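Key result, reporting period 2: structure in, sequence out.
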């Protein structure tokens, strides 16, 4: 591997060779997990043993793992190795309760670095590139994962972390990075800061953006690509499974996220019945780690909704851009709504910026959804109340016809919705409070 810009052998292998490797690794992964008391108990309760797995289709009889299971074994109960073999801890924040602790052996950090380097290469990165990492460093996996991957491939890494947006702009202008790794919502805040300082974002040195850690849309990609004149690619992962770098969009096809199947085995289930979905259908992604040492996970429920598609740029299958999380879905008067659907509609209206929040309230027994969205910065203070009223009405009508729900839309002045320096908070649920 080293600092090579070449693809790894498995990235050009045949699908048969990949399946052979996966099956061998899957059997070993189940045996490793069986060493953890939690999994042994679960398997015994389900009356399955790792030796029962002969083919991929046998995996459905093995128990799934949930975030709740990880919480209950807080902090170290899911580890498959003694804690003195763990060299790194990360944690996923979660909105309620204790965080979920994730442990990595030296070998796990090595695999993760390799997969992040592979992801950067798949996005079009080279050893000669400079990488500005504006994902947060710390217990969140975004910063350190990107950092180790960039170093592993021999790039120059600028560990900016999240926040201090003025300084982000200064570093980008002065150090002239080729690649930025950041959440899409925070990249928008950085672009706005360029403009606030009277700088033209398109003139900056960036050639690629590797965006993820939160849902985003094709419309947002289009906006970012135009405003920065670069290629914006999707990067997916989750801390429980490893961190960023589980799947990455390839620059040559830009058609969804290639999942690094030599390390993760994907399945899709219908979250309401917990049974596999038919080929090509949308479902909740389950992931089984194939090579993880410190904390192997079997059929982990990600809550992320996507479709599995055949491989294009690589033999590995692709995940369609995440549609949303099953637990971010709000049911409003019987209609299932994802923030990404609302975002797609907002971006059809040329006067609006992709900064928005959805507020849920309950009026008696009825849920109400209000959408707060900012005007484009260039329009600040230029539109009268009538024009703004027209825009709100138009957007309300569009949401009604595309998504099927009634909302109240408030168009607000630029920079009035709080900016995130990492993952954007799109839904404010005030229903319990009213
Ligand atoms: O967000 C890991 C990561 C870091 C991914 C940097 C990409 C880049 P968590 O904090 O555990 O880990 O959050 C994981 O974020 O289950 C998805 O719901 C969401 N998510 C991550 N990437 C994407 C993406 C990191 N590309 C959760 N599109 C996941 C949509 C994403 N959602």
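The corresponding designed sequence is given below.
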């Amino acid at each position: 591997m080293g600092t090579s810009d070449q693809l790894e052998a498995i990235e050009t292998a045949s699908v048969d060779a990949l399946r052979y490797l996966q099956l061998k690794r899957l059997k070993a992964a189940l045996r490793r997990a069986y060493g953890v008391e939690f999994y042994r108990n679960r398997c015994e309760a389900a009356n399955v043993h790792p030796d029962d797995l002969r083919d991929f289709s046998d995996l459905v009889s093995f128990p799934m793992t949930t975030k709740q299971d990880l919480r209950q074994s807080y902090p170290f109960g899911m580890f498959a190795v003694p804690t003195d073999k763990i060299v790194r801890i990360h944690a996923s924040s979660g909105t309620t309760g204790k965080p979920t602790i994730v442990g990595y052996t030296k070998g796990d950090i090595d695999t993760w670095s390799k997969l992040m380097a592979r992801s950067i290469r798949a996005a079009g990165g080279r050893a000669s590139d400079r990488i500005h990492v504006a994902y947060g460093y710390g217990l969140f996996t975004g910063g350190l994962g990107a950092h180790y991957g960039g170093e592993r491939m021999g790039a120059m890494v600028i560990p900016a972390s999240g926040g201090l947006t003025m300084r982000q702009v200064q570093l980008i202008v002065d150090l002239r990075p080729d690649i930025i790794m950041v959440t899409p919502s925070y990249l928008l805040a950085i672009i706005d800061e360029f403009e606030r300082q009277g700088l033209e974002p398109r003139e900056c040195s960036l050639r690629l953006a590797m965006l993820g850690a939160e849902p985003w849309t094709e419309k947002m990609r289009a906006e970012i690509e135009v405003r920065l004149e670069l290629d914006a690619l999707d990067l997916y992962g989750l801390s429980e499974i490893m961190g960023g770098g589980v799947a990455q969009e390839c620059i040559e096809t830009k058609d969804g996220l290639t999942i690094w199947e030599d390390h993760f085995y994907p399945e899709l289930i219908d979250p309401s019945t917990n049974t596999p979905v038919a080929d090509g259908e949308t479902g909740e992604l389950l992931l089984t780690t194939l090579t993880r040492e410190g904390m192997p996970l079997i059929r982990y429920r990600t809550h992320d909704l996507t479709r599995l598609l055949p491989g294009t740029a690589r033999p590995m299958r692709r995940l369609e851009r995440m549609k949303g999380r099953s637990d971010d879905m709000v049911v409003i008067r019987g209609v299932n709504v994802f923030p990404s659907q609302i975002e797609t509609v907002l971006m059809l209206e040329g006067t609006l910026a992709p900064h928005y929040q959805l507020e849920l309230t309950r009026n008696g027994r009825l849920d109400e959804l209000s959408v707060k969205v900012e005007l484009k910065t260039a329009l600040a203070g230029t539109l009268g109340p009538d024009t703004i009223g027209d825009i709100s009405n138009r957007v309300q009508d569009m949401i009604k016809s595309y998504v099927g729900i009634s909302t109240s839309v408030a168009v607000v002045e630029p920079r009035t919705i709080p900016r995130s320096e990492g993952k954007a908070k799109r839904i404010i649920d005030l229903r319990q409070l009213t």
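The chain has a mean pLDDT of 94. The pocket of DLL is lined by residues 92, 135, 140-142, 212-215, 234-239, 243-244, 302, 304, 322, 325 (CB under 6 Å). This case is discussed further under Risks and Mitigation.
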